[in-house]
Amino acid sequence: MHPDSEEWECPRPGWWPPKTAALTSVPSPGLMLVPNVEFTSVLKPVFAREKEPFSLSCLFSEDVLDAEQNIQWRQDGRLLRPSGRRQILYEDRRASLKVSCAYKEDEGLYTVQVPSPLGLQEQSAYVFVRDAAAEKPGAPGSPLNVRCLNVNRDCLILTWTPPSDTRGHPVTSYAIELCQGESGQWVPWHEAPGGTCRCPIQGLLEGQSYRFRVRAVSRAGSSLPSKASELVVMRDHDEDQRKTEISFDLGNKITVNTDDFEDFVTIPSPPTNVHASEIREAYVVLSWEEPRPRGRAPLTYTLEKSVIGSGTWEAIHTDTPVKSPRFALLDLEKGKSYVFKVRAINQYGMSDPSEPSEPIALRGKPATLPPPAQVQAFRDTQTSVALTWEPLKDAPELLGYYIYSREAGSSEWQTVNNKPIRGRKFTVPGLRTGKEYEFCIRSVSEAGVGESSPATEPIRVKQALATPSAPYDFMLLNCGKNDMVIGWKAPKRCGGGKILGYFLDQHDSEELDWHPVNQQPIPTRVCKVSNLREGHFYEFRARAANWAGVGELSAPSSLFECKEWTMPQPGPPYDVQAFEVRATSLMLKWERPLYTGAGPVTGYRISVQEEGSEEWKPVTPDLISGTHLRISDLQPGKSYVFQVQAVNSAGPGQPSMPTDPILLEDKPDAREIKVGVDEEGFIYLAFEAPEAPDSAEFQWSKDYKGPPDPQRVKIEEKANRSKVILKDPGLEDLGTYSIVVTDADEDISASHTLTEE
């Protein structure tokens, strides 16, 4: 197999990539017994560059048995196999796809699939292949999808797809290059006009193999060459139709050529049915049927033309003998009509001329296709926007669509995709959070890239509003004879909006039905449940609500006994959260226990559990007096879990619910508080969070004790930016200023210590 060749399976019927990344489970009946394999990482969009390598990889929870057979990679739904440019690897629960040299044809939605008892588990991510740097500044991007059609003894039709980016200069022509066999030597062969991506290639040698590639040419220069076409062999494809199989002796067969049954022919008969099989702006492909009978001797053809009304016939001169029953006429004059005759020649002589063809004239320049209608942009994620449009109807020549984007206020459009996409929707990833973008779409055909659709309204890149995920980790915070106080953790996904409240259900273990605790949403993550029966066991579940609606129902909590607490030690602290997570440090904050036991809380004990360990270790040797602690000297790249215990004179109480695992990693793009002096001479502290949801609040705190004194500071907020301005700076303004952005799925927080300097 040649390094540029590919092996494909047919795409699944009706398949369409709805997003740039997805994780789904597809039922697959009759699967062999396999371990319960799950993905432990997520495929992310890849932005590769032409002629450079790229790779995709994912991790599994278990080792995949017979990985070579069970792990499948697909591009746009078609099965991928190893090739000279492509490696498919599996080692240590990691599956990888590596491409050594990217072409635009490699762009598309890549999916990795692995079987499990529940069906096929799969993940998908889009790979974009951007244009390589041009050899000459301003030269266009390279064409793609070069294909050989209607291959015959000495001619074929070459087609390609125009580039998405012409870098400001329209394509004036396409330079076609040819490589014979495996020589590796590329030579210029033909130049096609810029208004078409289809061209006849003639004068090829029967029995020889060829590859082709194309360059786009503008006044700024020539593009890099396209990826080479598949290797084609020049031969008489009609010969297969002249072969037949004859059965004999109980299943044996012999293949014979129907020419062997024809009468002996010397001078051939004239060809028949001379007609134009293809008419374009720059050429006409003339086709005809071979003489019948044709005889056994090889045939060539000569052609004659006559301008309508001239009354004269003129021989058409060719550089090489015409061996195929078709020929491309490249030198016809526009505005004139022609008729044609064809003669057949063999070793014995020349036939009489055929009947003249019907009048034939060149067509006008083909028009590009109009853009799709109703292009709309919608919020998707923190870094992507979803586009929809109304696709063109009755446009069989449509190759697909090119999408373009620009930041609002900019005049320069950037290409999104370099390989045309089909369908009616696409998700554009890799955008800058909080920035506004506009989009437009252009239709692509052999006539070129059409006009742009009207630009969409500017859209700010933010998380789309969706219902929140389920609350989790329920805990008993206090208990009386007939009531309980229940706490829980907020959803991991807020849905891009403010959590308006929670709906709590309760279930007595001695009853069948669940009952709602509240009819109106509870604004906090703590709820007192009354009218319970002493000694009974209860479990709870909850849903969170935002402006998009009520979210997922949580799993039931553990069973809690309704029995009044009388122990002398304190109850558990709650709402333990980590903020300002950096490579080696974080800020841990919590709420005081609701049950204090026999005496006041005198301090807190903080414990940590490292990833892979079951041992809890104290963070500090002494008790912590407040409800926050900065924890430093942690190891980057590791995950940690923390819990807090309140201590009084009777000793340590119940531990809090442990935090979720917290990964310590370097965040070079982490938002930090900036300190400066404005034009009026006031000292300020400013924080910007373009990824914050629209409903987010910027909560400032002084020394982690609450909001700064409004008598001493003024707070200004505008478009995801908040600023604390010191009215009359003094020593009492020194200290640590911290900020937390609410309603975000990820930690957005920072602090800054203001000193006399």
TrEMBL record:
The answer to whether keyword Repeat applies is: yes
InterPro entries, alphabetically?
FN3_dom, FN3_sf, Ig-like_dom, Ig-like_dom_sf, Ig-like_fold, Ig_I-set, Ig_sub, Striated_Muscle_Regulatory
Q: Kindly give the CDD domains that the UniProt entry links to this protein.
A: FN3
Instruction: Tell me the keywords, alphabetical order.
Output: Cytoplasm, Immunoglobulin domain, Repeat
Against Pfam families, the record matches this protein to: fn3, I-set
Q: What is its main location?
A: cytoplasm
- Ranges for domain Fibronectin type-III: 142-236, 270-367, 371-464, 470-565, 572-667
Asked if the record carries the keyword Repeat, the reply is: yes
Could you name the Gene Ontology cellular component terms for this entry? M band
Q: Where is the Ig-like domain?
A: 35-128
Q: Which SUPFAM superfamilies match?
A: Fibronectin type III (SSF49265), Immunoglobulin (SSF48726)
The GO annotation for biological process reads: sarcomere organization
Compartment annotation: Cytoplasm
PANTHER family in the record: MYOMESIN-3 (PTHR13817:SF89), TITIN (PTHR13817)
Put simply, this protein is called Myomesin-3
Q: Which organism is it from?
A: Gulo gulo
Q: What is the lineage of its organism?
A: Eukaryota, Metazoa, Chordata, Craniata, Vertebrata
